[in-house]
Amino acid sequence: MEKKILVVDDDPELRQLLHEYFGGWGYSVLLASDGAQMWEQLGRQTVDLVILDLMLPGEDGLTLCRTLRTKSSLPILMLTASGDEVNRIIGLEMGADDYIHKPFIPRELLARVKNILRRSGESGSQTAPARELHFASWVLDLNAHHLVDTTGVVVSLSSGEFRLLKVLADNPNRVLSRDQLLEVFSNREAAPFDRTIDVMISRLRRRLNDDGEEPLIKTVRNEGYMLVASVERRT
């Protein structure tokens, strides 16, 4: 099935470039120059992924990312200015699934998009997969990509949060390094001082209300993170 990508950027040349490039790879590409056009496009049709620039007229990309994440788990890939480290981290905290610096090589952006779409849909491609992972007082729904607590309250997850929690739950009581988690999360090697995984773990802990003396997601100093729980897979 043809995947639809919405590109939100105020640079008309870049929009046209991405329209032609992704169109050549079989994607359906929608375009928007600002937040108003983005919401208009999203209101008219279903989209599989949003490529969202940080610097936009009117509402900026960070605000749009935060608002979109409260409404949907739609994958978001943010375009950031080279060296804009603070905004990149804030973007991840607000729910972006990945980022790429401008200027970028279109082939790299394509690889990131393919990876996000593959990860967001992989649970439906398994043979007789488990539908739920039960751990502590939580249920991770592998079809709906959300959490459910003991009272039945649903906690929404971004696609990045879902993938990260799933790999932790697939490897309970095992330390996974930041590099291992980053590879699963975005299929790339970590750059020096890359805080992507730390930010994502912080977001997951907030979703899990994981702020007690015995955390569910444990930090193992100089090694990585582990999910401290027994996990039961149910079909």
Class of secondary structure makeup: alpha/beta
Q: For the record, give the distance between the C-alpha atoms at the N and C termini, rounded to a whole number.
A: 26 Å
Topology order in helix (H) and strand (E) letters = EHEHEHEHEHEEEEHHHEEE
The helix count comes to 8
Average predicted confidence as pLDDT: 85
**What is the topology, as strand order, of the major beta sheet?**
2-1-3-4-5
- Can you identify the CATH superfamily of the largest domain? Response regulator
- How much of the residues is beta strand, in percent? 15-25%
Shape: globular
Write structural notes for this entry.
The chain is built from eight helices and twelve strands. The protein is of the alpha/beta class. The strands form three sheets. It has a five-stranded parallel sheet, with helices on both faces. Strands 9-8-7-6-12 form a five-stranded antiparallel sheet, with helices on one face. Helix 6 (159-170) crosses helix 8 (196-207).
What keyword list fits this structure?
single chain, 235 residues, alpha/beta, Rossmann fold, Arc Repressor Mutant, subunit A, 2 domains, 5-stranded parallel beta sheet, 5-stranded antiparallel beta sheet
Sequence-ordered SSE layout with sheet pairings:
Blueprint: E1 4-8, H1 12-24, E2 28-32, H2 35-44, E3 49-53, H3 61-71, E4 76-81, H4 85-93, E5 98-102, H5 106-121, E6 132-135, E7 138-141, E8 146-149, E9 154-156, H6 159-170, H7 178-186, H8 196-207, E10 217-220, E11 224-227, E12 231-234
Parallel strand pairs: 1-2, 1-3, 3-4, 4-5
Antiparallel strand pairs: 6-7, 6-12, 7-8, 8-9, 10-11
Helix pairs in contact: 6-8
